[in-house]
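Design a sequence for this backbone.
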């Protein structure tokens, strides 16, 4: 899988005198290329739909979000503005499985078992050391 995100932007504006905040985020484009399937008819699994005019393609981001509390020169308390363009998504079961396998925690608890055993051994060695030191101090009196 090959994921490419273009023109990712985030902006935060704090206005302490007005007790106001503005959050702005945009994503120019997102592409997901299928590198699992050989000779695929659709190598691009996710990509923006091509615009009808080249002028809009360069200017408009794929997704933009503006959230503002107590907007300047406005009587409202909050402002939310979302714009998005369409995505072309091709369903490929192999790609879907690879993505879910990446994000789902493995069923095997083997790595956690090794960590627990190592922690238990360390705890027992510290406990034995503590008991020996206490016995030594007790015998010296």
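Sequence:
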């Amino acid at each position: 899988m090959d994921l490419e995100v273009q023109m990712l932007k985030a902006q935060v504006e704090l206005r302490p005198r007005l007790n106001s905040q503005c959050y702005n985020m945009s994503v120019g484009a997102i592409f997901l290329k299928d590198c699992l399937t050989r000779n695929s008819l659709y190598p691009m699994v996710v990509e923006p739909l091509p615009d009808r005019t080249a002028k809009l393609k360069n200017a408009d981001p794929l997704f933009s979000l503006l959230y503002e509390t107590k907007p300047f020169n406005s009587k409202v308390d909050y402002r939310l503005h979302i714009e998005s363009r369409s995505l072309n998504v091709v369903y490929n079961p192999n790609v879907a499985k690879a993505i879910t396998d990446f994000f789902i925690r493995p069923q095997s608890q083997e790595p956690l078992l090794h960590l627990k055993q190592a922690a238990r051994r360390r705890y027992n060695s510290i406990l034995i050391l503590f008991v020996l030191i206490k016995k030594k101090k007790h015998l010296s009196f």
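The chain has a mean pLDDT of 84.
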